Input
Amino acid sequence: LHANFIGVTHDVLIVGGGIAGATAARLLALWGHDVLIVERERAARPALALSLPPSCAPLLDAIGVRDRVDAAGFVRGTGNSVWWGGTPSAPARLRLEPYASGRAGWQAERGALETVLLRAARDAGAELLTPATVRRVETRAHADDDAPVHAVEIDTDGAVTETRHAHWVLDCTGRAGLLARAQRAAALEVRTLALVGTWERASGWPVVEPTHTLVESAPWGWGWSVPLSETQRCFTAMIDPQRTTLTGEAGARPDAGARARELLPRYHALLAELPNLGALVADAQLVHAPWACDATPYSSREVAWRGRLLVGDAASMLDPLSSFGVKKALASAWLAAVTVHTALLTPAHTECALTLYREREAAYVASADAALRSVARTTTHDTHQAPFWSDRGDADTDARPQADALALTLREDADVRAAFARLRTAPVVTLPPRAAFTWIDRPVVRGNVIRPEPHLVLPGIAEPIRYLRGVDLLALLDLAAGAFDAGVLYDRYVRSVAPATLPDFLGTLSVLMARGPAPSS
Ligand SMILES: Cc1cc2nc3c(=O)[nH]c(=O)nc-3n(C[C@H](O)[C@H](O)[C@H](O)COP(=O)(O)OP(=O)(O)OC[C@H]3O[C@@H](n4cnc5c(N)ncnc54)[C@H](O)[C@@H]3O)c2cc1C
Output
């Protein structure tokens, strides 16, 4: 062991105290680990309103911060108001898209949300070092058990550099991607630049649903607006900087002041081209000058190693159109914490945990990518035959999320349908014993750890599966030994295993009957 690596002080060092970093830190500290967060800058950033859908609620509960987020005073968003695909001759009609069942999300100011999460991390016992910038991470494998040790160089106030040591380093540095940058792959060959300004209208905004996120498409991209309060909203123009020029002269590199001066008229001109968002700001006051930030989606070739994970936006950035960046950051941080906790608790399960982490990250990217392509294709098809949209709609694959694709395929399968019909007419059915099926171990999350558990290999289904429509195949086959009446079996399953709807349960049984080995008579 190198002399510099003696005296490891932290189980986990988290680089970046944004949404992902604060979340992972809180969970790991709650679960008894020694955690240090290093955050570069916590001040002087312009406001950015983030729209969090109601489906973030279970994650906020799992992280134990729902009450704090509720108490932070954020506007509770109830849906989206959308003007999509209009043309000068046929303006888009307003489409109101309330969240299902009247649920509400959160329209959170980024800095305020981070403050809530960081406070929750510190209350759980995590240490916060800020302002402090991580410059370098050096990794050495430990000679005895192969557990890596990292030496992390930190600039604390420009001049002073200190080194801290940790077994795990989580890169939660967002787009900056301290460790992630070397892994980066663009999701699509397109770029997106966000121009964000904050506007005030003292008498409130003349919109149908004031808590809604407003979205409006244009040939050059799209505009959106998220409320910060009853009187303030962020208005953003999302453009492709390769297709919509910001500076008059190509290749010119103006200084920051000149860039800001150029940005202002361009920002005003873009908003003015949006019939609805433009009308809203016409008599409002710009209280924070527009600023530009790169919002181009990307993914990483690799996100997980022994001792290192890329988390949240560091691992991948979803297109802002999805409004799922924060949800993904929370989910990714939760799973990162579970992965690290597993590795620290049960080193033998580290590889299994890393596998699951990689798979989930890849699944986010695939579904976000597919969703963006589908919106872009519809937009190109409907009205804006503009390069901004056709570039984003060019698809070479149908990247439908795997679980949906599997459920759909099986629903259409002739053998499965025949088995389903048999179940309805012949109440007593026989399934082969569990041991007659082929099983292989795959990772699953149980509470706050990941462990290998048997998954079923079925012909014609690419991935081994443990759950189908939420029904546990292993538990079901254990209950179904011998001949059974489907209705009785359903009652036993929901009483002794987990809730399931009858159609989901019968559908799953049908798949086992159709795709499993033939029962011996
Ligand atoms: C214009 C725009 C609008 C968006 N709107 C939405 C929306 O409406 N809804 C939504 O869900 N998502 C939205 N997003 C996405 C969302 O903001 C991100 O997905 C989310 O903030 C990611 O959180 P993170 O913690 O992974 O990364 P970040 O928020 O980027 O945090 C990274 C942190 O790391 C710190 N850091 C970086 N390098 C270092 C270093 N070397 N040392 C120490 N610290 C470092 C940074 O200071 C920062 O605090 C939007 C994004 C943009 C750009």
Q: What stands out?
A: Residues 1-5, 247-254, 395-401 have pLDDT under 50 and may be disordered. The pocket of flavin-adenine dinucleotide is lined by residues 15-21, 38-41, 50-52, 133-134, 172-176, 178, 194, 196, 226, 236, 293, 295, 312-313, 320, 323-327, 329 (CB under 6 Å). Residues 190 and 391 are 7 Å apart (CA to CA).
